[in-house]
Design goal:
- This is NACHT domain-containing protein.
- With 379 residues, the chain is α/β, with parallel strands linked by helices.
- The protein folds into three domains: 51 residues; 211 residues, P-loop containing nucleotide triphosphate hydrolases (Rossmann fold), CATH 3.40.50.300; 98 residues, no CATH class.
- The protein contains 14 helices and five strands.
- The chain starts with a helix and ends with a helix.
Length: 379
């Protein structure tokens, strides 16, 4: 019911007071709400700061001593793929072989060790470099070690170097490895059997879970290591354990008795084996012919760009030139590589003709053309 005018006039001051009181209460509530929000934000910031500080302290505790611990492994800095000056396989050569290795690398159900054997000069190291580059492109290269007589020939440095390299790129493995190194800081001096167990098997099992994509470790030219007993010990420790280690191993070497006999005597399902000198002659010959053709064309182009330009016959290299170098190389990429470096050095036309004069007979020992080539190069 509407109040009379006189009543409203009399009650107006009280209404104003009520409105003012309501506004004052509302203002107090807003101020209190703002204060509580501010306090909550401050508490959250404090919590986050405390949590961040805790994480930083934990990280420092876990990795603060990392440089010192990893240094105790006595790794060889230039042993990996980035320390190698040699060439990988020329593009469009070794295509089928490299594809087979890619398939092996991507299959979690196959044997975890791939041994590539081959006589000197068959291109094992070039293949190993190509494998490293392809693995890196697929983000599956764990680490690599390229053995070399006189500089990187101590088998007891292989596993520590691989471990150090892998630790720097994989956090989970790094933390697991550092825990072990805190308890066993001198493990880099232990036997290769203990190195395999403590630097690979144990931390890798802790770091990687089932179903996770596997990384691959590459070791090239294992035969270059001087201590043959230590090499046998390494293989004896590594091959039987490979099923239980969540990582793959790509190994190359010459078919030396202490290496080849080990792969013959162990279970075949524990490793894949491929011997380069057993690959069909026509497959290898096609790759070497392609390599020779490309290199000779590059040699001609580089000399024609010089001042004054070097003069070549119109048909150089001829089909006969390429056929001759290819036939002499047989299955030895090192022959083609050495011959073409020799030709490229100076007077390529004359040097190629000089090679044509070398004695060559089908069926001669595989390395005899190489012996003749080195005799020519050194004269």
């Amino acid at each position: 019911m509407k109040r009379p005018t006189i009543t409203r006039i009399i009650a107006a001051p009280k209404d104003i007071e009520d409105v003012q009181e309501s506004f004052e209460k509302l203002a107090a509530w807003v101020e209190r709400f703002q204060l509580e929000c501010s306090l909550n934000v401050e508490h959250k910031v404090e919590d986050l700061t405390t949590e961040s500080t805790h994480c930083q302290l934990t990280t420092r505790r876990l990795t603060g001593d990392m440089p010192g611990l990893l240094a105790k492994l006595r790794h060889i800095p230039d042993a990996g793929i980035d320390g190698q000056s040699g060439h990988a396989c020329m593009e469009n050569t070794r295509v089928e072989l490299l594809n087979d290795i890619d398939i092996w690398n991507g299959d979690a159900d196959v044997a975890r060790i791939f041994w590539l054997g081959g006589m000197a000069g068959t291109g094992k190291s070039a293949i190993a470099r190509s494998v490293c580059y392809r693995l890196r492109q697929n983000k599956s290269l764990g680490a690599s070690f390229f053995c070399s007589r006189g500089t990187r020939d101590d088998v007891k440095r292989i596993i520590p170097t691989l471990a150090e390299s892998l630790a720097r790129q994989n956090v989970a493995y790094r933390l697991a490895l550092l825990d072990i190194l805190r308890d066993e800081p001198d493990i880099g001096h232990y036997t290769v059997q203990l190195q395999v167990e403590q630097l690979l098997e144990k931390p890798l099992r802790d770091a990687f879970v089932e179903g996770q994509p596997m990384l691959t470790l590459v070791v090239d030219a294992l035969d270059e290591c001087l201590d043959t007993k230590a090499v046998k010990s390494l293989l004896s420790a590594l091959v039987p354990r490979s099923r239980g280690i969540p990582i793959k191993f790509f190994l190359t070497s010459r078919p030396e008795p202490h290496i080849q006999s080990h792969f013959k005597s162990t279970q075949r399902d524990l490793h894949n084996t491929l011997r380069l000198h057993d690959i069909e002659q026509n497959i290898v010959e096609a790759d070497i012919r392609f390599y020779c053709t490309r290199r000779l064309e590059e040699i001609r182009a580089s000399y024609e760009d010089r001042e004054p330009p070097y003069e070549f016959p119109p048909e150089w290299p001829s089909r006969e030139d390429i056929k001759m170098v290819t036939k002499r190389a047989g299955k030895l990429f090192i022959y083609a590589f050495t011959a073409l470096n020799y030709i490229e050095e100076k007077r390529p036309v004359e040097r190629l003709l000089g090679m044509m004069e070398l004695d060559f007979a089908p069926g001669q020992p595989l390395t005899e053309p190489l012996d003749e080539m080195y005799s020519l190069v050194l004269t």
